[in-house]
Write a structure and sequence with these properties.
The complex is a heterodimer of chains A (413) and B (160). Chain A has 413 residues and is mainly alpha-helical. Helix content of chain A is 49%, strand content 11%. Chain A contains 18 helices and eight strands. In chain A, the strands form three sheets. In chain A, strands 1-2-3 form a three-stranded antiparallel beta sheet. A three-stranded antiparallel beta sheet of chain A has the order 6-7-8. In chain A, strand 4 and strand 5 form a beta hairpin. In chain A, helix 6 runs antiparallel to helix 13 and helix 13 runs parallel beside helix 17. The radius of gyration of chain A is 23 Å and the shape is globular. The two termini of chain A are 30 Å apart. In chain B, strands 1-2-3 form a three-stranded parallel beta sheet. Classes of the chains: A mainly alpha (413), B mainly alpha (160). Chains A and B meet through helix 1, helix 3, helix 6 and helix 7 of A and helix 2 and helix 3 of B. Bound molecules: iron/sulfur cluster (SF4). Iron/sulfur cluster (SF4) binds next to helix 2 and helix 4 of chain B.
Chain lengths: 413, 160
């Protein structure tokens, strides 16, 4: 197949009927392809655009360019083995995905989590949120044309990655949470590193705000763009900052607290206009609130176990293997066979940086899940994207895509 | 080349054509801005402040394949993405190189299933593989330096 043949579109015009308006079929409006290789689609999103001049008449997302078969792969692995898979789903929120999956497992087998593990989980999940918002802010600003914010954001992000590497040995795909707690206890250097970050970071958030919040170009490009009303946002299933940007107070951490979020004192920032600017302000404020949670967590870090002692589900520590026959048996059972949860179904939701991340687990009593399914925010938000984009200029589309913070790994899985 | 004008006005530099061309090729190699999955985030870190790829003349990522020399396949290549990737490769002008970043691009990684192409070398010729899931920025830089070293070894006889 030569390149020439490939690049000329030989599709059937009839196939477009129903997708685009009739004006496109008669040639009155133009159909334009955006992506999957486009710098501003945040990965491999493809959009079919129908344009009237520069105005967007229709916007049809085409997904699946990153479909990895993660859910199916998880069915072939034992419960504990699949944790590694969840990191790779929404790769800006690896620990949040771990958390959703571990909470689902714990609900299924009714496993207790020691308080120390819970607090460390919350702490790391909030650092992940900051991390994700930093990548979002950097790329979003880059799309709209502010290069330096990107460099600043990634500088701060390295500090968070250093903390992740310290606890888990990996920068991004840390797979640190396990059913019943954590993989291992945090090292000694952890606390000073987190405190350093708490001292260092607030001034940096102020810097981003100084660069952007009152910048006339930024205001022109973001205010009044990508509007979505509260009713529409609810009807389209939006969650997270996209929903809160329209002024709906819905945060799973407050509404349905999990993992001990009820002990922490933080606010949920809300927007008024539901446009790109409000969603930006919310994420900036969320970084500050997340930092507050991190601070409270490190101040009140309880001692004690970092992982449950229930030997039916949690392998014994290495040191016990030398002198306890029982420990050897548990270890052998868990590593050769895995645990067998009771039959049943559970659904657990957590607040990911993008919105509601749900994990559904169905067990048939075998050591492997019968079905795993994730309700991912990016997928839902992508269906709200056409609604936000219609009527705007094509140049604003990159801002709108950025503002709903789509991660294609999260969407396609 | 290592030529330093020591004698004041030294107007002439002699070198071999191969060395001059290879030097030019390695010092301003523009990668294509082409992120697929998680590895692309580490590729962005490599670009950004702490690791700073502009030290190697690579700060300019071109979103258009027609302006780029190096394709960094950063992430897992799905069956749906594979034809697109091949088309992008075909659109790049010669000379061009491919760096496969991460386990997924190199061999499928943890995803041995129906959706993922088990190694991008099934569709495009790969010059350097970088292991890791995701590779650290240092690893990616090492991969790039390895590629540069390879390019410096190229001979005129092979170009023809
Ligand atoms: S190698 Fe790992 S980090 Fe890279 S794309 Fe594959 S799963 Fe993601």
């Amino acid at each position: 197949m030569s390149v020439q043949e490939e690049t000329v579109w030989q599709g059937d015009v009839e196939k477009l009927r129903g997708l685009v308006s009739d004006r496109a079929l008669s040639g009155e409006t133009m159909v334009l392809n955006m992506g999957p290789q486009h710098p501003s689609t945040h990965g491999v999103l493809r959009l079919l655009l129908e344009l009237d001049g520069e105005d967007i008449v229709n916007c049809i997302p085409d997904i699946g360019f990153l479909h990895t078969g993660i859910e199916k792969n998880m069915e072939a692995k034992r419960y504990e083995q699949s944790i590694t898979m969840t990191d790779r789903m929404d790769y800006l929120n690896p620990l949040g995905n771990n958390l959703a999956y571990c909470l689902a497992m714990e609900k299924l087998i009714e496993l207790d989590v020691p308080p120390r593990a819970q607090v460390i989980r919350v702490l790391l999940a909030e650092l992940t949120r900051i991390n994700s918002h930093l990548v979002w802010l950097g790329t979003h600003a880059l799309d709209i044309g502010a290069m330096s914010v990107f460099l600043y954001c990634f500088r701060e992000r390295e500090k968070i990655l250093d903390i992740f590497e310290m606890v888990s040995g990996q920068r991004m795909m840390s797979t640190y949470f396990r059913p019943g707690g954590l993989w291992r206890d945090v090292p000694e250097e952890f606390e000073p590193a987190v405190r350093d970050f708490i001292d260092y970071f607030p001034a940096k958030v102020d810097d981003y705000e100084k660069l952007l919040s009152n910048n006339p170009i930024w205001l022109d490009r973001t205010q009044g763009i990508g509007f979505i009303s509260a009713e529409d946002a609810i009807a389209l299933g939006c969650t997270g900052p996209t929903l809160r940007g329209s002024g709906v107070n819905w945060d799973i951490r407050k509404a349905l607290p999990y993992s001990g979020y009820e002990q922490f004192d933080f606010e949920v920032p809300l927007g008024v206009h539901g446009d790109v600017y409000d969603r930006y302000i919310i994420r900036i404020e969320e970084m500050r609130q997340s930092l507050r949670i991190v601070e409270q967590a490190i101040d009140n870090l309880p001692g004690g176990l970092f992982r449950s002692n229930n030997r039916k589900y949690v392998p014994p520590p290495r040191a016990e293997l030398g002198h306890s026959m029982e420990a050897v048996i548990h270890h052998f059972k868990l590593w050769t066979e895995g645990f067998r949860p009771p039959k049943g179904e559970v659904y657990v939701r957590v607040e990911s940086p993008r919105g509601e991340l749900g994990c559904f687990l169905a067990s048939d009593g075998s050591p492997r899940p019968w079905r795993v399914r994730f309700r991912t925010p990016s997928f839902v938000h992508l269906s709200a994207l056409p609604h936000m984009a219609k009527g705007h200029l094509i140049a604003d589309l990159v801002g709108i895509i950025g503002s709903v913070d789509i991660v294609l790994g999260d969407c396609d899985r | 080349m290592g030529v330093t004008p020591k004698l004041g006005e030294l107007g002439v530099v002699t070198t071999r054509l191969e060395d001059a061309v290879n030097w030019a090729r390695t010092r301003a190699m523009w990668p294509m801005l082409f992120g697929l999955a998680c590895c692309a985030i580490e590729m962005m870190s490599t670009q950004a402040s702490n690791y700073d790829m502009s030290r190697f003349g690579m700060e300019l990522m071109r979103p258009s394949p027609r302006q780029s020399d190096l394709m960094i396949v950063a992430g897992r290549v799905t069956r749906k993405m594979a034809p697109v990737l091949r088309q992008l490769y075909d659109q790049m002008p010669e000379p061009k190189w491919v760096l496969s970043m991460g386990d997924c691009a190199s061999c499928g990684g943890v995803f041995n299933n129906y959706a993922i192409v088990q190694g991008v070398d099934e569709i495009v010729p790969v010059d350097v593989y970088v292991a890791g899931c995701p590779p650290r920025p240092e690893q990616l830089i090492h991969g790039i330096i390895t590629l540069h070293e390879r390019i410096k070894q190229e001979r005129i006889a092979d170009w023809a």
